[in-house]
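Pasting as-is:
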Amino acid sequence: MQCIKCSTQLPGEANFCFKCGFPVGDIKVCRSCPECGNSLSSIDKFCSRCGVPVQVIKEGRDSLETPSEKPRVQIGKTPKLILVPGGQFVRGGGTQTSLVTLVSFYMAEVPVTQMQYSCVMGKNPSKLLGEDRPVESVNWCEAIIYCNLLSKMNGLQPCYSIGTTTDLSGFEASSPVWKRIVCNFASNGFRLPTEAEWEYAARDGKSSCTNQYSGSSKINSVAWYGENSGITTHSVATKEPNALKLYDMSGNVAEWCWDYYEPTLPTGSLTNPHGPNIGEMHVKKGGSWLDDEQQCTVFYRSGSAPNGKSSSLGFRVCCSAIGETI
């Protein structure tokens, strides 16, 4: 048997990893320490990291959906949007930075939930089930299709088209026709955020935000990630929001962005950047229940193929603020 956290080889009868203390075998990880975020099993009486006393969870109790893990906001069938006022910020981290100017836009307060996705698409592809949990195992193309269908359901102009077609549900994710997709940023419909919009919103929509994670410098207060998630997603809006009242921008599931991914960010001053014109992968941001602290920072970036799916990857929607110059 192998520890899924640190890969240490363990005897078959082990309940905990002797190296990192992570539960293994038949012992289920189902919660995190309220003090330090350490993963705990149902039989723990004390946190193995900080020693704080915790309650033993009795067999049959639904520990993953305790009352304290219900969303702090009302989740409707259509995502609720929060205005992100335009401004300037320094995008990226380390040596890869650029000064970006953005017009105002609207960002969904939580990632798209399984209930919201099912109401539009008529199916739920997620592996880690729960109607208030983020939808996952959705590729980039399916996220685009959802945006257009959601726009039509709400009487809005779809943002995405291939040629003259806005009904993109007939195109397979592996089809080269997706290379021809365009986004009309002047439309009033739902769309994926650009990488710059995502990071600006995660940084509280401020030019001087110094938090490494969205809403805090302490990851356990704002994110479900590899150390506290119990190896699963959680209901949205159960951690603290950032200053814009956006939840789960760090952790829970990583989120698709519109832009094609390039390993190096462009330098200099940019206004409303939409990313490269061509590419093989699309940007994902925010980190997930599976990731470490670094991957959950507001500036960390990576890419995945547009037909790629993962139980740690979802998305949230945004809208242009019509009347602003795009």
